[in-house]
Every structure is written in C-alpha cells, then in structure tokens.
Amino acid sequence: MARKHEGPYVAAAIFCDKLLKEEDGVLSAVRIVDRVIRTVKGPRAPEEMTAFPFKLGALISLKSGTIKGKRTITWGMTDPNGKIIGRQSFDVVFQGEQHGVQLQITLNTTFTIEGVYWFEVTMGNKMLTRMPLQVVYERITSKRVPNQAP
Predict the structure, then answer these.
(1) Which domain of life is it from (predicted)?
(2) Rounded to whole angstroms, how far apart are CA atoms 27 and 150?
C-alpha cells in the first residue's frame, strides 16, 4: 500500500540580519541569529530592560510535497509570557513535489521584556514549525572606586 504524502515541508526557518536576492533569484541569509542582546552601559543603566525597537529578517522556505494550489501561511509572534503580539498572513501557491515557496519577512517590532519569543508558522490548523528568538538584557554599570586611578 502506497503511503500518502502530504506537506508542505519546512526546508528552512531562520532569523537573519539581512536577506539578499541575487539576479538569478537565489537567496542568501546574512548573519543568521537566534538571540538578540540589548546592551545598556552607564552608571544609570536600568535594572530591568526597557522596551526597544528592533528590525530583523526572517526566511521561511517550504517545499510542496503533494500539496498543490493556493494556501494561506500565517506567521504569529508570542512574547515570553505567552501573549500573542502579532500575526501576519501570506497567500502562496504550491505547485507540488520539490517545488516550494519562500517567505521573506522583515520583522519591525518592539521587544518589551527579556526572554524567549516564539514565532509560529501555520497553514490552517496545521503547525509547520516554531522558531525561538531569545532577547537578552545586558546591563553594564561603571562605578569608579574612590582613590583609584581611572
């Protein structure tokens, strides 16, 4: 009995600083990341992270499998407390087999708290993948000790 193949299948799901599309249509991801470090320096650096805007690229590459036709892919962002803070949908067309689609996403967001943010990629009720992005707050205070040379 032949197995029923389905799809789509995740070929890549990454965050990066920049996505380049060459003349021949080939994509390159520059500086693949899974962590954002927010560094604040100075004697008055806050104890806890304050909200900050951030821009990041994401590439989602899906292969059709036996799926053909128009589908809607949804990309949702959840903060470390589990609160959904953003959703975006993309209409795509799958052609079957090894053919696929590539979603090039520019994420312009504001991170409000430290921790792991989850990005879910779904098609209908089917979870395709989850991508974690850790936000770390690094506080650097510089205190001079009396009678010590700088």
Answers:
(1) Bacteria
(2) 49
